[in-house]
Amino acid sequence: MAHGDITHIDIPVSDLAKASEFYSGLFGWTIAEVPGYEGYPMWQAPNKISGGGLAPRSDGFEQPRSYVEVDSIDETVAAAEKAGATVAMAKAPISETSWWAVIVDPDGNHIGLYEGTT
């Protein structure tokens, strides 16, 4: 993936098992938990390219959220803020080689940022 590509889509759900059954049956997605990320099953589309996660629904996370791969979260957040965005979640580690953050665009949309090894 390259800077600017959508790399991941999280879908907020109330019942992980029910959502897994729904999306795998409806779209043919493969859905499974990945070791180290229990309680956050990952989905992959039949094209083996598109994917994301089923995440617990929470306050502030009530709609699907796309994650855009960036070369630098720090630089992207600075540019986003200069352009009128705010930060909903500061940069945080996913692993030793990857990070994520969430910005809110000037129209109120939450956009995830991803930096690291896909």
UniProtKB/TrEMBL annotation:
One Pfam family hit: Glyoxalase_6
Signal peptide: none
Domain of life: Bacteria
Record domain VOC: where: 5-116
Protein name: VOC domain-containing protein
